What we know:
The chain is of the alpha+beta class. It has helices at 26-37, 56-74, 76-85, 97-100, 117-128, 186-193, and strands spanning 7-8, 11-17, 42-47, 53-54, 89-90, 139-140, 194-199. The protein has a 5-stranded antiparallel β-sheet with strand order 1-2-7-3-4.
Amino acid sequence: MAIQELELRGRKWVTQGHPGFFGKERDQRFSEWNQQYGEDGWRIAWELANGEVLDFEQVFWQVYVAGYVQYFLLKPEEAAFLTANYSYTYDKDFITRAQAFDPYALHNQPGIRNQFHHVSLNVALEWFLDKSFRGQEPLQVREGKLGVSKDAWPDGWKWSPGRIPAIRRDLIPEVNISGWWQESTIEHLYQAAKVLQINS
């Protein structure tokens, strides 16, 4: 659906730009947009290179889950290793197994950074590839910090979304944005396609 045709409940959403990676600034930026546009006058969406606009649920399933499914289909030995040795995966904050399979558990919660890529990894393995986690302890899947020795990185860094290839690299918009992720990955698509839209 082209952006100029996108309407929701009688509203037409117009893209204002690419806000980039939020990190610790998310709540502050959301507050600023609430003041500037009103709480119902703006939203975050994802505009692909072909003009299609996705919401969070579509991005979660079509970009993240699909990316992890394809990755583990190509690397079944890694899928077997993860499910044999761990009980589930998590990102920054330790969570329960129920939260580990809920994409909204740590999404847009005030004071908590968005965390959902681990959910897509868990869902990809158990729900789509029928590989149940059988280990006793969860695994932190998170990118290591630059300048820090890899020995000090989380054990699951290699499955970070910034290292998992996007299944449709042609859908990544060509925008001037950079961050901790590698190019042509699912995180690259997520960050490059992210747009601020206001109700016109």
